Structures are given as structure tokens and as C-alpha cells.
Amino acid sequence: MNDIDAWVWWLIGAAGLGIPLVVTAMPEFGMLAVGAVAAAIMAGLGFDVVVQVLVFAVVSIALIAVVRPVAARHRSQRPQLATGIEALKGKQAVVTERVDGTGGGRIKLAGEVWSARALDTGRAYEVGQEVDVVDIEGATAIIM
User: Can you give the pLDDT at residue 2?
Assistant: First the structure.
């Protein structure tokens, strides 16, 4: 075992840290693996063990301190691209069959014909009128 250089041990450690990264999906293991690679570079350049451990610690801690808050901020943000029925909310549609608060009417929304009902039950929309979709309930668009 003494015949193996220190940089090889650091690379083995980096690979060992990569395994729990893949299994647990915890990015901290990846940051520690990068620290181990940095320590392997220091070992390959001939620095002693103290410098290698310090580089490992500094790089790992710096990555965790910088990357984790950025990742947490991105994780808490809503996606910028709305898909599915969320993308249809707020769109304009054209009434193709009279729509009132009881339902039964139809609108053309995003190139498709949808059943629709008015948000205000006392209001009716006539054929050809432009309306706004405020919500989707099942296969029915709620309009105003």
C-alpha cells in the first residue's frame, strides 16, 4: 500500500464520494469529491499531506458555502415555463357557443374547442365575443 502515491488515494476518495452522490442525489457529496480531486492535484504537484488536507477542506467548504444557497434559491422558484392547463390560464379565447353561468357553452382556446362556463353566474357571453380564461376545472374553462 505504501507504493501507491497520495494523489491516487485522493482520486479513489473522490470516486468513493461519487457513489453516494449518485445513490442519494445529495450534491454535497459531489462538492466533497471536487475537493478530493483538488487535493489529488496538490499531491501530484508534490505538496505535503497538510497542504493536501487543507486544500480538500477549503475547496469543499467553499463549494458548499457558495453552491448550496444558489441551488436552494433555484429549487424554491416556480418554473418559468407554464405547461398544461396552467399555460391556458389567463389566455384569451373566442366564444363559439353561447356561454353562461350554468355551463354548456363552448369557446375556442389555443386552437381547440373547450366547454366553458362563466365565472359570474349572472353573466352570458355571445358567439364571437373575446373572453379571458381565469381557471380550468376538469375539461371546462371558467371565463370572464
Answer: 55
